[in-house]
Amino acid sequence: MKDYKFNNPARRNPAYRDIGGLYDIYLRSERNRLANLNRANAYLKAVMVFPNYYGVAMSNLGFLRAYELINRSGFMSCDRAFMQDDLSKGVISLETRRRLKDYDFIFFSLSYENDFVNILSILSAEKIPFLSKDRNENFPLIMAGGVIAFLNPEPVAPIFDLMFIGEAEAIFPDFFEKIKSKNKPDKYEIINSSAGIKGIYVPSEYDFIFDPKNPYILNEIKIANGFPKRVARRWTDENLSFSSSVITTEFSELSNINMIEIERGCKRGCRFCSAGFIYLPLRESTIDAVNEAISATGENEKAGFVGFGTMDGKNIAKIMRFSLDSGRNFSLSSVRFDCLDENNLDMIKESGIKTVTIGIETGSERLKKMLNKVLSNENIITSVGDIVKRGITGIKLYFMFGLPYENKDDMDDTVKLVKTILKEFISASKANKRIGKLTASFSPFVPKAWTPLQWENFEDLKILRKKASYIANGLRNMPNLDVNINSLNAAFTEAFFARGSRLSTDILVYSFLNKTSIKKAAEDKGLRMDGFIRKIGTGELLPWDIIDQGVTKRYLLEEYKRALNLKTTPQCFEGCKRCGVCA
User: Fold this and answer.
1) DSSP three-state, residue 68
2) What is the Cβ-side half-sphere exposure of residue 246, based on CA atoms within 13 angstroms?
3) Residue 576, Cα to own-chain centre: how many angstroms?
4) Do residues 559 and 271 touch, judged by C-beta distance below 8 A?
5) b/e code 133-149 from CB counts within 10 Å (16+ = b)
6) By mean pLDDT, which of 114-123, 130-139, 153-162, 427-436 is the weakest?
7) Using an 8 Å Cβ cutoff, are 329 and 302 in contact?
8) Quick one: CA dihedral 271, 277, 280, 283, positive or negative?
9) Could you write out the DSSP letters of every residue in 315-383?
10) Alpha carbons 438 and 420: distance in angstroms, whole number
11) Radical SAM core domain: from which residue to which, for each copy (predicted)?
12) What confidence category does residue 198 fall into, taking pLDDT thresholds of 50, 70 and 90?
């Protein structure tokens, strides 16, 4: 679970620890662009639940987008609910303080595997049975969407009545047509009729059969009559404008930033990145739509440009220029070294950005080829100097370790690169008469569904601990350098769920009810954790094969073989039909 304590008034003033008082503070802080929306004719009640705390949820554009679309339906009003410190009195919504069990529909927004336990905490607090099969018509219809829902839904699929596979803008209109004529929705009628809606998954109608001799092997998926063999992901038309923050608040992780999605998808093809494959094809929001969202940014807010490759867009220079000319500073979710020409750097400086975030992944040229990261260390070092000379005093670098076939030489290359970057960072900073801070964060590699490296294993924790110590010792006591090693245990749990199956649901529920660890729960059920984080055979039937992402398994396997042979693949280009999405 993400840490929400960064900006929580309850941590500063005990008087606000009551959830009602805390929610009053949050509501007063919000600039809500839906505040004047007429919901007088809404006869169905929905609640959007983010299974983490308010500050994390309010920095999640997908959560806010779904909330907006439901409220704009005309026949549904939608409130918000979050994880709470105190669940003893149940879970209440932010806007109306209504209990979750009193809604017609509960929509969960899933963005992080490590939040799965919070789903159970929330349902338990409301005395709602965990599994769909145990809930009758007296309980709300419980659904889930979000990136994790259509990356690999299986570890939590038995919990939900319906799951949305793809982008809300594409699926919601058809789903809303099914339910809008029902003053009192018939839960089972909605579930059964959803079979005909592309992008909706009804987990109860699919039976996953595992090998009795080896329960980690999936033998077969049995499907009820009338339901699709694979649930096809839906995505929005390339001409649609994307989302921006309908609500901003100082208590978000991204305090007072109007997030504006300038593109969706990524053309780079990094072989570890699930978002780079499941959001294909790359689509850019129209420049008019982006400029309109910039103009709606409040006086005390920044325009925050969001995308997987924010600087890749063909209109990014025009967008940044428009924002500055409109008197609105901007922020960038991340930058790429190879997109930082002098013009872009000058506008970043003009906007007052003091820290930039860049994913490097590894200093090993060998492993870069495996990951399909093509920027050389020399170019990275030169770019750092260019950035710092513009007066940017903070650079955050992100690396991975525990990568497939990683050896000591690869780790030495990464440590050496960080030291060389630091040297250039300090040298370039002297011209500014102020030396800032370089931060290098290291996270264990977690193999994800729908990537070319999905078949690889998660590194053994004992080995990861040794590697983490090796990195930390190699960079110890370096001036102006902060080194962060992200939680190995959290990565272990993430890896367990990322490629999990319905066996993972059983372990999750057992773990929650018995107040024990995921590892102990698996052992109590006669299962080994290494069976879930192992290297997977390329011929195996995978739990997430129930989803049709558009990207073919054949293409992922080709990319996997190229990774093992240290061959890079050019990024997507117009007319490209390699992966299957645009075929």
Assistant:
1) helix
2) 18
3) 26
4) yes
5) eebeeebbbbbbbbbbb
6) 427-436
7) yes
8) negative
9) THHHHHHHHHHTT--EEES---GGG--HHHHHHHHHTT--EEEEEEE-S-HHHHHHHT----HHHHHHH
10) 12
11) 252-482
12) very high
The 10s digit of each residue's pLDDT in 525-551 is 999 999 999 999 999 999 999 999 999
Token pair belonging to 480 = 């102006």
Pairing of strands 218-223, 206-210: antiparallel
Q: How many CB atoms lie within 10 A of CB 232?
A: 14
Are the beta carbons of 93 and 100 closer than 8 angstroms? yes
Using left for φ > 0, alpha for ψ between -120 and 50, and beta otherwise, residue 405 falls in left
Q: CA 113 → CA 155, 491, 515, distances in Å?
A: 9, 10, 19
Residue 10 is predicted with a pLDDT of 52
- The whole-angstrom separation of Cα 16 and Cα 448 is 39
* CB of 429 closer than 8 Å to CB of 393: yes
pLDDT at 313: 83
Instruction: Say which residues have a Cβ less than 8 Å from residue 565's Cβ, sequence separation at least 6.
Output: none
Confidence of residue 15 (pLDDT cuts 50, 70, 90): very low
Residues 71-95 have a mean pLDDT of: 96
Give dist(CA 455, CA 54) in Å, integer.
35
Q: What are the structural domains of the chain?
A: 5-232 (3.40.50.280), 237-353 (3.30.750.210), 354-499+536-583 (3.30.750.200)
What does pTM read for this prediction?
0.95
Residue 14 has what pLDDT?
A: 47
pLDDT given at position 238: 62
The span from the CA of 515 to the CA of 525, in Å, is 14
Closest residue by Cα to residue 72 from 30, 33, 29: 33
Helices and strands of the chain, counted as H and E runs: 20, 21
User: What does the pLDDT look like over 279-333, one tens digit per residue?
Assistant: 999 999 999 999 999 999 998 999 999 998 788 888 999 999 999 999 999 999 8
**Sign of the torsion formed by the C-alpha atoms of 547, 550, 555 and 559:** negative
